Amino acid sequence: MAEELVDREVASEQAFVDRVYLQLERAGKAAQQLAKEGHSRGRLGHEGGLVERDAMVFQAAKRIAQLDAAHEGLVFGRLDMTDAVDPQPRYVGRIGLRDDNHDSMLIDWRAPAAAVFYQATAAEPREVIRRRVLRCTGPRVVGVEDELLDAEAHSDAEAAGRDLPIVGEGALMAQLSRARDRSMHSIVATIQAEQDKAIRAPGKGVVSISGGPGTGKTVVALHRAAYLLYNDRRRYESGGVLIVGPSGVFMRYIERVLPSLGETAVALRSLGEVVDGVRATRHDEPAVADVKGSERMAEVVRRAARQQAPGSPTEFRVFWRDDRIVLDRGALGRVRRHLMSQGRRNKQLPRVSAALLDAMWRQVRGERGREEGREKFDDEMLSRDDFLDFALAWWPPLDAPTVLSWMRDPEFLARVAEGVLSTEEQRLLLKSWVSTGSTTGTAPTSDLSIEDVPLLDELRYALGDVPQKADDERDDPLALIEGAVDIQELMTAADREYAPSGRAWAPPTHSIDDDGFAHVLIDEAQDLTPMQWRMVGRRGRTASWTIVGDPAQSSWPAPEEAAAARAAALEGKQSHDFHLSTNYRNSAEIYDFAAAYAGRVGLDADLPDAVRRTGVPPTEIVAADGADLEATTREVVVDIARQVAGTVGIVVPAARRSEVNAWLASWPELADDAKGARAAIDSAVPPPGDDRVVVLTGLDTKGLEFDGIIVVRPDEIEAESATGRATLYVVLTRATQLLTTIS
Ligand SMILES: Nc1ncnc2c1ncn2[C@@H]1O[C@H](COP(=O)(O)OP(=O)(O)OP(=O)(O)O)[C@@H](O)[C@H]1O
Predict the structure, then answer these.
(1) Residue ranges of the UvrD-like helicase ATP-binding domain (predicted)?
(2) pLDDT of residue 437
(3) Helices marked H in 160-192 — which ranges?
(4) 186 CA to centre of ligand 1 in angstroms
């Protein structure tokens, strides 16, 4: 009987969903037609036609992308309101859709009219009688889950002849028990009231979202980005939304959420990719990372940017009429200081020759020379190759990688780090740089570590962009120093923000003037070093922000220093704080185990309630090193991979990663019968395809989740760095179903 009722309800929802898909197809065709018309207008050739074409094609393409992305679970919610408000059902979906009469068929989940879907509760039903979540696979309705919010209004409505049966076991539990795959999914159908508040907070100042593990901070922040884009598309699409997360693996884990919500106009960057054109994926060892992340590096880098280029000339001599002119160290030092006081180094390039000529002219004492005059003197010098070569070699246009490579020289580093870094700290820096690249010449950016990127960015800002030359001078480096240069007009973030809409976020330009965004969203913010805060701060000077984090999960050892850098990055902006209190990831058994660990080692953890019980507590196993450890790990991994349908993470100390990878490659049963599980060979590179089993270090697991977690040698993970206990706490909070530790 109950099954029949469910079938009947599913069938009736299917009829509505079918109508929606039909309408969607029509809307898609109309958009394509618009695109086609746009193209043929462009072919007319006149300028007006082209502008019109761009606008139309863009709008149409955007609409098509939106519709394509919407294909998964397009309709997910239904509200039945009290008679007084609306006797007709209201449907909520990933995008809004109207029928041919322009009446609303589907309400966009971000629209004000959809807010009640998330905010109504049994305590405060807000005229909602029944909230229904539709579970769909593509266009097929496979189930419905109802919640009765107002029993009194329900019996009134039924008495008045409306048929509102309550079926299912609750959408949230069904959603939380699903097997995990390699990407994060959107939660539009089951956003909880406290999460909804953070998602819909106004796009002003800083919205800060805190909460313990698994409370939905990441997924809420992503839905917030979609919400902001929906509500102020012009501002955020033209100004750009920057989303920063801890690692490349994490960015790939979350990258599908926004497109599935119909949004593609965002820049998703890991901390190693924040600077345009740079992509670092390797971490330095913890002791080195601590030095590179410290705010003190800003001073070291600033000094480096002011140093004379190593190997550049220190003297220039020339005869002119009766005078012997010598620019010696002292004279050049004065010119250098004068130029440096005028602003960023590269910005001074157009002034270099004039400043040198000033200093030289002062040495012209002879009568003949004086009589011929300054103008003649300048003309003659500027036509001499030796002068121009000198000027260019003495004040060359510099890029950040080059100056960073200077710091690989111990003497140079000692000079710029004096009084700021200890000898031991300098040794650590040198060790990390010398082991990865040459000590001379320009440095490639390909061997940079994630911790080098903020140093590079700091240098970009200390040096300034090399002024752009006019097109006809582009190939002539000397054009830079021959006085007037046509500096390309660059748009600031504010210009872009208010540029005519219809143009998406501009592509990377590598120019610091184009670094700014309209919104900056930082995930796992507790891990940002002071230098990383400086880097992201520069991208959000005029932006609104969303900042997400949990201090107990922090792997930065000096929290006060990071807090100060964060405050400086957000200076003058008002903060609105939201706190999430329910853990949706871990089973209660697993989270209790992790929370007990946090208490035992003295972490000041924010402890959420875990709402789902599985009846399976974590397992602790002891194994001796060597063959025993491998055999035990193998047994546990194979067992867990068979028990869970989704992903499995083997978390190991960094020093054991290659060892465990080698084991994995040699275990045939993983390939054969553990339900399609195969071993990933290197966790630094995310495995291809849909491998279910991966090997990760503790730091790699930040922000991720797996159905099963096996922790190999937790004590070693704990001892790996000064913040190893926080890292192990993170590791223990990654599993949705099964957790085993092997000590
Ligand atoms: N309202 C919800 N409905 C369904 N699933 C949810 C909901 N909120 C959170 N989740 C799920 O809970 C899990 C944890 O979410 P998320 O990763 O965003 O948490 P987090 O707070 O960022 O975690 P951590 O700080 O531990 O990395 C995800 O699988 C997410 O989809």
Answers:
(1) 190-587
(2) 52
(3) 171-176
(4) 10
**CATH number of the domain residue 618 falls in:** 3.40.50.300
User: Is position 211 annotated in a ligand binding site?
Assistant: yes
Distance 279 CA to ligand 1 centre (A): 27
- What's the gap in Å between 184 CA and the centre of ligand 1? 9
Structural domains of the chain, count: 5
CA–CA–CA angle 591, 593, 597 (5° rounding): 110
Confidence class of residue 479 from pLDDT cuts 50, 70 and 90? Answer: low
| 3-state DSSP assignment of residue 628 | helix
In a domain, 493, yes or no: no
The whole-number average pLDDT for the span 478-492 is: 39
CA of 191, closest atom in ligand 1? 1
Say whether both 164 and 296 belong to one domain: no
Q: Which residue has its alpha carbon closest to ligand 1 atom 1? A: 191
Backbone angles phi and psi of 586, in degrees to 5: -80, 150
What lies within 8 Å, CB to CB, of 210 at 6+ separation is: 217, 548, 549, 550, 551, 577, 578, 579, 580, 606
* Shared domain check, 351 and 261: no
Is 439 part of any known ligand binding site? Answer: no
**Rounded distance between C-alpha atoms, residue 539 and residue 527, angstroms:** 18
Q: The domain containing residue 339 runs over which residues? A: 316-394
> In the predicted model, is pLDDT for residue 503 greater than 50?
no
218 is in an annotated binding site: yes
Closest atom of ligand 1 to 549 CA is 25
Q: What is the ipTM of this complex?
A: 0.99
Whether 23 and 172 share a structural domain:
yes
AA identity, residue 116: V
pLDDT score recorded for residue 28 = 72
| C-alpha to C-alpha distances, 465 to 344, 372, 400, 569, nearest whole angstrom | 8, 38, 10, 22
Q: Can you tell me the mean pLDDT for 293-309?
A: 95
By DSSP bridging, strand 206-211 and strand 544-549 are parallel
Residues 408 and 390 both lie in one domain: no
Q: Is 445 annotated as a binding residue?
A: no
- From the CA of 588, how far away is ligand 1's center (Å)? 14
Same domain for 170 and 37: yes
Whole-number Å distance, alpha carbon 251 to ligand 1 midpoint, is 15
Kindly state the average pLDDT of the residues 312-317.
94
Using alpha carbons, select from 642, 633, 603 the residue that is nearest to residue 711: 633
Residue at which a domain ends, from 147, 178, 209: 178
pLDDT at 261: 75
What confidence tier does 415 reach under pLDDT thresholds 50, 70, 90? very high
- The ligand 1 atom at the shortest distance from the C-alpha of residue 523 is 22
In a domain, 508, yes or no: no
Examine the domain organization and report whether 121 and 235 are in the same domain. Answer: no
Query: Using CA positions, which residue lies closest to atom 27 of ligand 1?
Result: 703
86 shares its domain with 162: yes
Rounded distance, CA 65 to CA 63, Å?
6
pLDDT band at 248 (very low <50, low <70, confident <90, very high): confident
The residue out of 534, 559, 580 marking a domain boundary is: 580
Secondary-structure breakdown of the chain: helix, strand, coil percentages, each rounded to the nearest 5: 45, 15, 35
Query: Is 619 annotated in some ligand binding site?
Result: no
Q: For atom 30 of ligand 1, which residue has the closest CA?
A: 216
CA 735 to ligand 1 center in whole angstroms: 12
Asked if residue 480 is part of any domain, the answer here is no
Question: How high does pLDDT run on average in the chain?
Answer: 85
- Ligand 1, pocket-test mutation among 177, 219, 220, most atoms within 8 A of CB: 219
Query: Which residues sit with their C-beta closer than 6 Å to ligand 1?
Result: 172, 175-176, 185, 187, 190-192, 195, 211, 213-219, 550, 584-585, 703, 705, 733
For residue 317, give the 3-state DSSP assignment: strand
- The answer to whether 313 is annotated as binding is no
User: Does residue 291 sit in the same domain as residue 418?
Assistant: yes
Q: Is residue 220 part of a domain?
A: yes
**170 assigned ligand-binding residue:** no
Give me the pLDDT at residue 384, please.
Answer: 93
For residue 733, the ligand 1 atom closest to its alpha carbon is 26
Give the pLDDT confidence of 547-600 residue by residue, as tens digits. 999 988 888 888 899 999 999 999 989 999 999 999 999 999 999 999 999 999
Ligand 1 pocket test target in 121, 584, 730, 736 with most atoms within 8 Å of CB: 584
Could you tell me what percent of the chain has a pLDDT over 90?
A: 56
The pLDDT tens digits for 93-133 are 888 888 888 889 999 899 999 999 998 988 889 999 999 99
Global confidence as pTM: 0.84
